[in-house]
Amino acid sequence: MGKLIKIVLGLVAICAVLVAAGGAILGAFFNPNDFKAEIEQAALEKSGIELKIGGEISWSVFPWLGLSVAEIDANFPQRAPLAHLGRAEVSVKLAPLFSGQVQMSNIVINGLKLNLVKDKEGNTNWISPPSSANLPDTQANQEASGSELTLDIESIQLSNALITYQDDQSGQTSQLSNVNLTTDRIQNNQPFNLTLGLLLKQTQGSKTTLQAAAQLTSQAVMDLSRQQYTINNLAGDLELQNGANLQLAAQSDTIQLDLLKRSLIVDAWAATFADLKLSGKLDIKDLDTLTMAGSISAEPFALNSLLTSLGQAPIETTDPNVLKHISLNSSFSGNSNAINTDLLDIKLDDTALQGNAGMNFKTGRINVKLAGDRINVDRYLPPASQTVSTEKTDTKQGSNQGYSKEEIIPLEPLQQLNLAAALTIKDVTANKMKLSNVDVSVNANKGLVEIPRLNVNLYGGSVKNKVVLDARKAPLKISSEKSVNGIQIGDMLVALTGESQPAITGTLSSSSSITTQGQSIHSLINQANGSANLSVSNGVVNGINMAQEICQTINTLSALGTTAPAQTVDTSTPFAKMGGNFSIKNGVISNQDLKAQLDAMLVKGQGAVDLPNALVDYQLALVIQENLFKKTCPVNNRLEGVEWPVRCKGSFDQEPTELCKPDTRIIRDILKKAVTDKVKEELGNKVKDQLKDKLKDDEAVKGLLKGLFK
């Protein structure tokens, strides 16, 4: 046995000497630079890659199998340049290879440049053309052989790497520069430290949208036989450069990658950016399909503080105490095709929103469904001084220059919308009004934006809207159907004005169907067409007793009955019903049947409101139906049933007292006739009685008098 062992050891020694001698001979007589063309041709045939070796190739065989290359360029045929390697050095100890061990010295890679390009047609330069699709698949062989090797690498040094991703379809470019990676000794199932540093720059066209510097440290463990890779205690800092240096700190307890199971697990991760603290989990069950589940949460933060950290202007609001407590909790699941939140919980100050959201990556469609408890919108509006200033400026411009022809509704954003969204909120305060059961639904796809529900309950009634915006081609087309039922006007006006006594009360109901087209205010108004109706019942006009005022005016003008000031009994005008039907044609609103059943009188109206030209021409007729004011303001019974006209004619910028005036010509004709009739009646009877006594037998004179007083 001892002799046999000696023989075996002798044979091993002889083999070692032969290998050493062979390595020396190869190193002395074999120059790999003489075979550059053959190497390049082999790369093209075996891998479908066009390889160009511009630098020197040097190698050694024993005791280390070493290789050093420089200035190598690679790309797929008929594709943009893919990679450039400045210099790389690697050496493997030869003897341990025979026992399945890979012992390597430092791996040095310097000046690596990866250029990833997607052209306008969607073709990429890192995927081989279809003709190369049948190349042998070596992945399975690599996995099988790799599982038998024991790895021992002294260190890895990657320096000055540059990775660029250029998307010609979106015009966006992302670049990782100054990429530097260093590790200490790497062995199977033994932890090793690594550090990674890089600069990130993102541009949109010629504009830089993001610029940052990142530094990561971690401890990693590799199990090559099981193809499991673990990263522990990952920590990193990201410094955003946008005029202000912003620090982002991130960390993760454990990241587990299993290539056999094709899974990736991130037990817990956390990130801190200014006042924003994020945390979550991630479990990718299939790396090929990216089947995943996870969670993400954001601790309460102040939005304006975050915006200031980002170098952005804070949002000015009426209430400076809002936007200070925002938080998020969500769990999600998905794959490479879509991702959905199973739970989405958002807190915005005093508002709680719950629901779900999702996105289909293939179609780009977004789905959002949220339900909230309450919100006071007024608190989030711009300060009142800004709003008033803007409104005054707009009003002045509108009256002096007409409606603006500037496009305020661009088509492109509407055409790009691809979403289905629904929002319900139980209680809303907006413009000081109390709203309930707000229900909004939006469905947008390829330029067709449908809003089947835009509903709200308020002040004893409800408003229901249905709106469609067709932006598939110019001009933009808009259609709207609205119904209003049972709203108490008085309660609504009290909320709006803050006054204890509203100008008008009653129950409002209406409906409308309107279409228009265009993208400017001018076009939208000039192209408006449709119909509407309006009804207000059981109401009161406060601040004026219309019947009494008209009565006193009539008596003053006609000098019939008493001319003394009427006694003020009530300063309100009750009415049973008010309403009419309206037609809209090219922005002109016409009405022929307005009626208002007031106390003791009927108001009738007809005319038109010309929105494009900001003009109104409306004729009102007041009819005294019954003399109910005999005690305070009696009128001549002859005036009952007579229509008293009021003409509203002029432009929108006129004062109401100038715009609407009684039609004095017709009123004077009415009063003149009434006075004439009364004078004829009173004087005629008196004169005839006196003359009859003196001219009893003069039939000719009697006939003359008869004709005079007709």
From TrEMBL:
InterPro entries for this protein: AsmA, AsmA-related
CC annotations in GO: plasma membrane
Annotated spans, Disordered: 382-402
Domain AsmA: 1-594
Pfam families to which the protein is assigned, alphabetical: AsmA (PF05170)
Superkingdom assignment: Bacteria
GO biological process: regulation of protein targeting to membrane
Compositionally biased residues, Polar residues: 384-402
Protein name: AsmA family protein
Origin species: Neptunomonas concharum
Lineage: Bacteria, Pseudomonadati, Pseudomonadota, Gammaproteobacteria, Oceanospirillales
